[in-house]
């Protein structure tokens, strides 16, 4: 499967995830050209946009709850990209070769870029990036719990790329069709880059799995540790998911947590066999009736513990982020001073 964007086995059209991203991009462009029958009433107009699969843009009226829900989701997503730089960033100085170092450096920089696109998308909803950063640093907004697990060996960089970026893609490809235009457009670009991340992780694991017995063991150990936390990335089961129903009605979310988790499992089984590594689930087997793999659910109590701040690295991650933020104050000040000087020297429109 290396070198090929993994096709979801349950996808009737047989499209790869990247094909789906391309299709969403085309749809996004054509939505902008469609005209809506005029409805002067704001709520009616908003509902008509959603109904017609058009995009809600920053200039459009939108219900407060829709705005709040998007800010929460986009901010959490942006924070995850930024905090997610830490577990892999830890390995930049210890990458086993110059080539691996350059690739990992580029990957971690991509994640910073994803954070930037997403903070910019959130700002179109009327919040400032400073406010959002403050909400993260004070613990009032969350980031994905997966980044509260430690990276113990070099193989973890492979397992994160394959499983964590892989799960992120499965979660995020449907967001390319999200009803809010700036978020959908950011997701298209992000998904294309995540596809590269997933492949680099797969390639690291493939190399280790075909290396010395010790390297192979290291790869298997990393997969064993990252498998269930990756399954937990899809969130609580549908029966306990608080925000899902409304997000689906607003077409922010297109598939439920459980549907996406199943799609991810089906995809990984095939890829694990190419890696010649096993997934740590004795009950993983094909169910011909459902045409999906049966699998053991992740430990959702553990997920809730990590969400509440009791994961192995919660404190370390946020302390590191706070320190980086305060040590970077001079950079923000210098950038603001430079922008102010330029504005005087080159007034807008000149
Ligand atoms: Fe990312
Ligand atoms: Fe990524």
From TrEMBL:
Q: Supply the enzyme class, top level.
A: oxidoreductase
Note the superkingdom of the native organism.
Bacteria
EC number, UniProt record: 1.14.13.149
Q: Which UniProt keywords apply?
A: Oxidoreductase
Membrane-spanning regions, if any?
none
Q: Which InterPro entries match?
A: Aromatic_CoA_ox/epox, Ferritin-like, Ferritin-like_SF, PaaA, PaaA_PaaC
Molecular function (Gene Ontology), one example: phenylacetyl-CoA 1,2-epoxidase activity
Query: NCBIfam families per the record?
Result: PA_CoA_Oxy1
Q: What is this protein called?
A: 1,2-phenylacetyl-CoA epoxidase subunit A
Name the source organism. Answer: Planosporangium thailandense
| Taxonomic lineage from the root | Bacteria, Bacillati, Actinomycetota, Actinomycetes, Micromonosporales
Q: Which gene encodes it?
A: paaA
């Amino acid at each position: 499967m290396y070198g090929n964007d993994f096709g979801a086995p349950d996808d009737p059209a047989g499209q790869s995830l990247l094909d789906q991203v391309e299709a969403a991009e085309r749809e996004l462009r054509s939505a902008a050209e469609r005209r809506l029958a005029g409805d002067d009433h704001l709520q009616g107009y908003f509902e008509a946009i959603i109904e017609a699969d058009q995009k809600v843009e920053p200039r459009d009226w939108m219900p407060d709850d829709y705005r709040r829900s998007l800010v929460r989701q986009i901010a959490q997503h942006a924070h995850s990209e930024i905090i997610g730089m830490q577990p892999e960033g830890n390995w930049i100085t210890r990458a086993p070769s110059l080539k691996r170092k350059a690739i990992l450096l580029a990957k971690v920089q991509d994640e910073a870029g994803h954070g930037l696109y997403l903070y910019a998308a959130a700002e179109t909803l009327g919040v400032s990036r400073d406010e959002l950063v403050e909400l993260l640093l004070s613990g009032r907004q969350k980031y994905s719990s997966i980044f509260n697990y430690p990276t113990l060996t070099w193989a973890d960089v492979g397992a994160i790329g394959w499983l964590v970026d892989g799960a992120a893609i499965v979660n995020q490809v449907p967001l390319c069709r999200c009803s809010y235009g700036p978020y959908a457009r950011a997701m298209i670009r992000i998904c294309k880059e995540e596809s590269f991340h997933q492949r680099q992780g797969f390639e690291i694991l493939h190399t280790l799995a075909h290396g010395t017995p010790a390297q192979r063991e290291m790869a298997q150990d990393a997969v064993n540790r990252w498998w269930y936390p990756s399954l937990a990335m899809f969130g609580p089961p549908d029966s306990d998911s608080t925000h899902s129903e409304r997000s689906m009605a607003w077409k922010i979310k297109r598939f439920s947590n459980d549907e996406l988790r199943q799609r991810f499992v089906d995809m990984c089984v095939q890829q694990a066999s190419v890696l010649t590594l096993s997934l740590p689930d004795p009950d993983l087997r094909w169910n011909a009736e459902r045409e999906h793999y049966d699998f053991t659910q992740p430990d959702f109590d553990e997920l809730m513990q990590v969400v509440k701040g009791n994961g192995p690295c919660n404190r370390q991650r946020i302390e590191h982020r706070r320190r980086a933020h305060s040590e970077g104050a001079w950079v923000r000040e210098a950038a603001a001073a430079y922008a102010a000087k330029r504005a005087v020297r080159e007034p807008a429109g000149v």
